[in-house]
Structure to design on (227 residues):
């Protein structure tokens, strides 16, 4: 049994983003798993919407983080994520079976997704695989050095700086993921007038980092898969 986790904090996304992610995981992850949604949304917690779906709703223990910085709390022992966890952001489209993303490496390996801009040297935190038996060091080191990290612009900068130096850190094969805006990681950023949004037939997951979001897409392949 593995954990599949997502974070739904703030009001950037609507309820269908949780429901659609669950549906995509249900279709494309054939291993036993728990689907865990960390959220501060009181409607989900109180009314348990999507009652037809096997989703566990939790709140993080600390409430002094904003938006996606709450992702750092995934690595806290208080999140009670026991065993191996595959994490994905809400704004992804799963295109084919993701068993390999859930099982790559060993439990001691932190697995990150290389950023789509190859010059950044960062992991893109949209997809991660980790085990808190080994990787709660991210949370512990962050708390010790929180002031030092205050100038960083995103959670992925912090996560990358804390985990990439460890010898047990590996990357997902680049071919498993694609950017909706950047088809590959060759360093050529599309001009907005040349963005064609084609599907990479080799990729398992498409990441919508920034704008547009999946619900904005008019591409037939996105509309077919994001539901």
């Amino acid at each position: 049994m593995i954990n599949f986790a997502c974070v739904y904090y703030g009001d950037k996304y609507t309820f269908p983003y949780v429901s659609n992610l669950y549906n995509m995981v249900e279709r494309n992850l054939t291993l036993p798993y728990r689907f865990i949604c960390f959220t501060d949304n009181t409607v989900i917690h109180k009314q348990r919407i999507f009652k037809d779906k096997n989703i566990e709703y939790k709140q993080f223990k600390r409430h002094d983080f904003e938006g996606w910085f709450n992702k750092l709390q995934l690595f806290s022992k208080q999140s009670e994520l026991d065993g191996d966890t595959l994490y994905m952001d809400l704004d992804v489209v799963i295109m084919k079976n993701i068993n390999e993303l859930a099982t790559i490496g060993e439990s001691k390996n932190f697995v990150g997704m290389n950023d789509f801009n190859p010059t950044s040297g960062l992991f893109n935190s949209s997809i991660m695989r980790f085990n808190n038996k080994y990787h709660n060091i991210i949370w512990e080191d962050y708390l010790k050095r929180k002031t030092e990290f205050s100038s960083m612009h995103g959670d992925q900068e912090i996560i990358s700086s804390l985990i990439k130096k460890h010898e047990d850190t590996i990357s997902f094969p680049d071919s498993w993921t694609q950017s909706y805006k950047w088809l590959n990681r060759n360093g050529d950023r599309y001009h907005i007038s040349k963005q064609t949004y084609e599907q990479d037939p080799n990729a398992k997951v498409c990441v919508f980092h920034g704008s547009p979001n999946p619900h904005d897409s008019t591409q037939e392949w996105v509309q077919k898969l994001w539901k």
